[in-house]
Amino acid sequence: MDYQSTLDEICAELKPKLGMEGAVANYIPALARIEPCQFGIALRTRNGEEAWAGDATTPFSIQSISKVFSLTLAMRLVGEQLWERIDREPSGNPFNSLMQLESEQGIPRNPFINAGAIAVADRLISSGYAPKTEMLDMVSSLCDEPIEVDREVAASEAATGFRNEAMASFIKSFGKLDNDVATVLDLYYRQCAIRMNALQLARATGYLCRDGAHPYSGIQVISDRQARRINALMLTCGTYDAAGEFAFRIGIPCKSGVGGGIIAVVPDTLSLCVWSPALDENHNSVLGQEALELFANRTGLSIF
Ligand SMILES: NC(=O)CC[C@H](N)C(=O)O
């Protein structure tokens, strides 16, 4: 398949729509300043063929896409016990909602909403994880380039993260968070503030379309079964309260972030990342979704 032409066409088709719909996330002050009229798309196939178009090499804040990497590390370091503290059901609620935590006794619905990722961060700390280096080392190795945290974004989130503080404290009140709220949130904000571009993310998520094998070395990052489970969670929970709509329109496991990035994985075939900062009311990139829908329709790569 000529992926490069497909991405070029999608990019040309969507460029005139830049700036017409959506708005950048403004609840994190450092993200509110991002220029919304940007669009980039990149993919890497299971065999290492690559294609990209638009602003695919412009770095952005990966935000909730980092929840895929923290889950990967937790599956490796914590194993099955992880699921004693986190469920695996779609929430049908916004990513930062507290509501279900009360009736569900501090067990977050899934690892891809904020409450779930905070619980994953807590599990990682308890497992002896090295908070300052481990995720950066993993993603740098996965995309074969050095990756850094944007300290300004992390500080900006920490200064305004009242909801996340409430969520972590609420989970702790049920006895389901073992470490200090501040320590857990520090780790969580660092992972969200990782800066990567679409091409690096397409490469770094390659293990999810290769049965868990590292995109360059071929060594297992996680097992085949664990990779399948992450893809299943991305399809059912990766785009917050729009997961049903994503499955309906696109039919590819996806994980979005409020920086405007969306990663998508077609198992056994390719990993893809699209980025455009303007978000819809569910906090998913407007043009990112459109691009994925065009891609799925033109390539026939919906998993259904
Ligand atoms: N959905 C997201 O990308 C949210 C992540 C963001 N860091 C937050 O905690 O609010």
From TrEMBL:
EC number: 3.5.1.2
Swiss-Prot/TrEMBL keywords: Acetylation, Hydrolase
Enzyme type, top EC level: hydrolase
Catalytic reaction equation(s): L-glutamine + H2O = L-glutamate + NH4(+)
SUPFAM superfamilies assigned: beta-lactamase/transpeptidase-like
InterPro entries: Beta-lactam/transpept-like, Glutaminase
Residue sites binding substrate per the record: 64, 114, 157, 164, 188, 240, 258
Gene3D superfamilies recorded: DD-peptidase/beta-lactamase superfamily
Pfam families listed in its UniProt record: Glutaminase
One term of GO molecular function: glutaminase activity
GO biological process: glutamate biosynthetic process; L-glutamine catabolic process
Family indicated by similarity: Belongs to the glutaminase family.
Known partners and oligomeric status: Homotetramer.
HAMAP family linked to this entry: Glutaminase (MF_00313)
Name of the featured protein: Glutaminase
Source organism (scientific name): Desulfurispira natronophila
Taxonomic lineage from the root: Bacteria, Pseudomonadati, Chrysiogenota, Chrysiogenia, Chrysiogenales
